Amino acid sequence: MTDTVARDTAAAQAAPPPRRRYAKLAADESREDYSLRYAPHSFRRWSPGTVAGTALGGIAYLADFAIGASIVFTYGFTSGLASILTAAVIIFLTGIPIARACARHGLDMDLITRGAGFGYFGSTLTSLIYASFTFIFFALEGSIMAQAMHQAVGLPLPAGYLLTTLVVIPIVFRGMGALAKVQAWTQPLWLIGLVLPFLVLAVEAPESWGAFTSFGGTEGAGAGFSWIGFGLGTGVALSLIAQIGEQADYLRFMPAKTPENARRWNLAVLAAGPGWVVIGAAKQLGGAFLAFVALEAVGTTHALEPIAPQIEALKPWLGSFALPAAALFVIVSQIKINVTNAYSGSLSWSNFFSRVTHRHPGRVWYIFLNLAIALTLMEMNMFAALGKLLGFYSNVGIAWIAAVAADLVINKRAGWSPPYIEFKRAYLYAVNPAGFGAMAIASVVSILAFFGVFGRYAEAFSTFLAAGIALVLCPLIAWATKGRYYLARPNPVVGPSAAGDADETATLECAVCETAYELPDIADCPAHSGPICSLCCSLDAGCGDLCRKDPAAAGPVLLPLPTVPAVPKAG
Fold first, then answer.
1. Residue 530: strand pairing partners
2. Tens-place pLDDT, residues 431-440
3. Is there a contact between 462 and 447 (Cβ–Cβ < 8 Å)?
């Protein structure tokens, strides 16, 4: 009897593990959109122009109007203008390397962060930072939409908050394909609604433009320049810096860059990546101008709500139709952005929980978590605390983005960071002190400054401290550690020694889920004695991180690398 048990036990141990089967929704890539993994070339079927148009459609939001109005009303025109333009320059410059990396490597912001100095678990915190960005701004945009419905049809605000939350679910549930269609179909109407109020005022009240430039705000700041007002205003505007993550969620579907499409590819990535902030800064100034014109008619509180200035601007031409026209514009704008907020939030929560729980029920389930938090914030009237909330958030957001940008621009060129983006658990340390340490230190110092610990000027310029500290510390730590914590072991597929040896579009079958994936999404796994896809690797709770704890145990390369020509790459 004992021998029989021993034989059965030995046979069970020798038997291959059962194939991993994902939940139906998690296995459906038409909805899942490769939420936790590399976006393969076979899925990137859109043209550069289509991807860019879809990404730019997501910046239709009117929070820019409210943010710009809040800055100018609080700090006056001169300081407000300087704040908005300075923040735009910082966001644009930090966004360029991130956008190019996401588009080139087919990775979202979380996966880029993993390989750009944060490590596998180090980027878990940034997933929460990014998730908080999506639900904070969903709540802000939803509040603006509810205000429009309250004005148009008298719908109570709490009911409006619920409706704005529910309306996006069917669209976001269906993934990138549905989002692309919504952005394309609504773009003409949105453009008309955006331009029309300014055209009306240019004809009917041309003198208001000059009066706006001497506006001293509503809180006694004065029309002149103030360093304190400039610093605080810049901090509020910089809260939008994490928007590059939402742009990256689209840019990862950019087709491969080739000599034939290099010009269109570069322009599309620049426009849809950091280029969003050019339109964003213009919208902030435009929103401040519309609020200024409407101030006398509607009062300060309502002037900060985008629907009221829209109505006042349209009245000379549309009369009684100004209200429904303005409400339609606001509703369309907010749906365009909130489908993006909900979509990006689902990606971020998926990344977070897959690492913490080793489970992945599917991206779509996390839509409901993100929307529940956003709805709670709306019901708590977070719109009333807009400036303070965004000013605090920007300290953490800019520390994160600045650290990632520093790695991509400085560390990789200096050779302290691998020349490619390694995002797979099998090759990463849990925490990389270069990026994660820089972000943590910069965040702590800047938040202490934000709460006045270091004096009034440090409080006003806390976001500048966050950016500066992160930009300096990330390369400094990478240099001091000689880049040791970027790779736990070499990647034999797409690492430096294999560059150009294999076609990225070639596929291998995962030994765990028995599905074929392109090479950049595959790792060699000693625990399973063969290839493993990045998601199965992330969800494996029983391997004990054998390959990372003892790289020598991985032995020789376990992957049957295809010997096919490399895909031509443009410079």
1. 525
2. 999 999 999 9
3. yes
